[in-house]
Amino acid sequence: MNRLPSDFALCNLSRRGFLKGVGATGALVLAASWGWQQAFAEEQKFGADGMPHGWVDDPKVYVSIAGDGSVTVICNRSEMGQGVRTSLSMVVADELEADWAQVKVRQAPGDEARFGNQDTDGSRSMRHWYEPMRRCGAAARTMLEQAAAAQWQVPPSECRAQLHKVVHTPSGRELGYGALAAAAAALAVPARDGLRLKQPSEFRYIGKEATRAIDGQDIVNGRAVYGADVHFEGMLFAAVARPPVYGGKVKSVDDSAALKVPGVIKVMPIDGRPLPSEFQPLGGVAVVASNTWAAIKGRDALKIEWEDGVNAGYNSVEYRKELEAAAQKPGKVVRSTGNPDEAMNAAQSSLEATYYLPHLAQAPMEPMVAVARFLDGRCEAWAPSQAPQVTRERIAERLGIGFDQVTVNVTLLGGGFGRKSKPDFILEAAILAKAFPGKAVRVQWTREDDIHHSYFHTVSAEYLKAGLNEDGMPAAWLHRTVAPSITALFAPGMNHEGAFELGMGFTNMAYAIPNVRLENPEAAAHTRVGWYRSVSNIPHGFAIQSFVDELAHKAGQDPLKYQLKLLGPDRQIDPRTLSEEWNYGESPERYPIDTGRMRAVLETAAKAAGWGRSLPKGRGLGLAMHYSFVTYVAAVIEVEVKDDGTLIVHQADIAVDCGPQINPERIRSQFEGACVMGLGNAVLGEISFKDGKVQQDNFHMYEVARMSLAPKQVQVHLVTPPGEVPLGGVGEPGVPPIAPALCNAIFAATGKRIRNLPVRYQLQGWQQAGA
Predict the structure, then answer these.
(1) What is the pLDDT of residue 579?
(2) Strand 349-357 vs strand 284-289: parallel, antiparallel, or unpaired?
(3) Cβ-contact 180, 147 below 8 angstroms
């Protein structure tokens, strides 16, 4: 039996204009097109320096209305629990005046020519697609009204779409969308500037709380298709033994025992590529079998001698010392304001601190898995991918076939967090499929594979020093960030962080400090470093927000009042004046850094948490704020630390200003999840290396937050910004303020300052509550 998601039955649509035609069933089909050249020029002008492919958007987001009235939205963004399939469909349905019960969604395959950039990362799906999808729905609504007017021979101004039908206002006559679809499809599409978009007071779904998840029922009852659910008759299964050290390769292999395992069909090599590896497989030896268990047992039976290569000496303990030593020395200056040396020397007093954060693994609940089939010079893949376009390109390059000969179908993702934006695991399946023409081959990673061979979040040391005035406020600020860069994946010698990494809470630090110098000393990568939920905002946010709390206590001031004073007067800052050109790929005119909005979330979170109230011994409140992905977030966390080191997180209050709130329920769920993930990172998370090898291999060693660590109560407070502002990101901004808020709360509770993560090493006799 073959099991494939019905989502893959896509319409065969051309690129000619906005209106794409009428199918055999008389369906109305539209696409929103958001000027590719214009978007490309703007994104390139403002950066994404060091990111492969840039931020190129040419949206081809399709909407169809069938003869039975059902509306189908084709979603070009990968669904990994963030709710993008629901949120984008809500936007279309609202402008279309569609009945939500008659709306469904299909997933787009990887196809840049039809759907634009499909990299689902950077918390930008709704930022980039909200307006095009509104226009798409509004255009369809207008055409349905025009079709009804023509049928009734009345002026279009007398016709109004109302909940899946068009009503002739004077007479009360009605026609359903299904009855009008074919006629509407034959009409010219209204010009973009002629569309009537709804006023917020007219919204039916946008900004409302009760909209049902569009595919929630399928997920709950098991009909939803994730990567491991794709199945074909006669499918083969593979497990791969990969080099334990980044850059290693097979020296020799004895496969005799593996070939004796029942079900094993073949043992074959997968070639790695010279470093840096980019998104290519690590190489190794694959065992292909008739079932997953046989493939894994066959892999276990392999006797492989590895040649570990240049990274065999990578040891976390020694490398930490290297990073911290580098942080004590001057590095590449990436921002300088005023005269920081003179101000530092003239300061009444000073404070300095070094913070350390280890590697992390994304560890999504669904390990890597992919299915591929090769036949007649074509390759088709099915996988939980965040980047189907990149995947197509790499498969074509690796197999030596044309780009148009590759199809990548996107399943649902059981979590992504940046890991599934890299297609190495899908390439493994494609390489093996070519060796078995006509057969589907599934490569299944185990949890141990996933943790050993991730694209890890970077390790970092952060050194900060402030020269203080008599009032305890900083007159001078020095910050050095030292971390291996993601850019090291793509070229040798990339030992400085890219502009996009530095722009994540470092170069765009917006405190009102007159004399600032920011430096980035060199750090070499000895493993694969990749994107992780909120990326470099994690170390930058932890260091800065911890340090500001230290400054407040040194000055004898309340941390909340100190933070507000340090923000300075409300103002809008052009990020380019801070030596920050990237700005998350957004226009600095549309997205200035607004300290008034930052102040508002800080005050909101503090008020909700009851900041300043007296607490019993062993309890404390800590606060932190952070701006990332053009969204403003503040967190206040209440903890209790018992005498034996037991840590209890009682409450977290998180205030968010992400601009217009399209799907409030999903916004809250994203920040609730980010809170728990941030706590897990801070308290438990650590990937360590010895002799180039990862020392953790499953959740008993690489721990993530469990229920006992999660706050007893998480409250997410959505802050409405003043005036009209564009959308901000939601998926990632909730992570960075959690670790510093937690550690600041632990200091308030115990007087112990935590500068190094994970926290579990810092609390004597530490244990989780309920563990």
Answers:
(1) 82
(2) unpaired
(3) yes
Two structure tokens written together for 281: 């497989």
- Cα separation, 56 vs 44, in Å, equals 8
SS3 labels along 337-390: ECCHHHHHHHCCEEEEEEEEECEECCCCCCCCEEEEEEECCEEEEEECCCCHHH
Q: In angstroms, how far is CA 33 from the centroid of its own chain?
A: 24
Tokens of 697: 């291999």
Q: How far apart are CA 679 and CA 665, in angstroms?
A: 21
Sign for the CA dihedral angle at 313, 539, 500, 58 comes to positive
Lowest mean pLDDT among 150-154, 193-197, 645-649: 193-197
Q: Which two tokens stand for residue 599?
A: 């102040």
List, for residues 386-425, the tens digit of each pLDDT value: 999 999 999 999 999 999 999 999 999 999 999 999 999 9
Q: Which candidate, 556, 705, 732, 644, places its Cα nearest to that of 120?
A: 732
- The CA-atom distances, in angstroms, between 42 and each of 111, 114, 583, 681, 742 are 22, 20, 12, 35, 38
Other C-beta atoms lying within 10 Å of the C-beta of residue 650: 16
Domains within the chain, CATH numbers bracketed: 6-221 (3.30.365.10), 227-310+368-444 (3.30.365.10), 316-360+455-768 (3.30.365.10)
Q: pLDDT for 633-659, tens place per residue?
A: 999 999 999 999 999 999 999 999 999
The answer to whether the peptide bond before residue 276 is cis (omega within 30 degrees of 0) is yes
Report the candidate in 10, 13, 30 with the shortest Cα–Cα distance to residue 144: 30
Average pLDDT for 421-450: 99
CA pair distance 251, 246, nearest whole angstrom: 15
- Cα→Cα distances 406→62, 278, 442, Å: 21, 20, 17
Rounded to 5 degrees, what are φ and ψ at 666? -70, -35
- Angle at CA of residue 628, ends 624 and 633, nearest 5°: 40
Query: In this structure, which amino acid lies at residue 431?
Result: I
User: Does pTM top 0.85 for this prediction?
Assistant: yes
Q: What residues pair up with 694 in beta bridges, in sequence order?
A: 689
Gyration radius of the chain's alpha carbons:
27
Can you name the residues that pair with 168 across neighbouring β-strands? 159
pLDDT band of 12, cuts 50, 70, 90: very low
pLDDT of residue 11: 25
* H or E, element range at 465: strand 460-468
pLDDT tops 80 at residue 336: yes
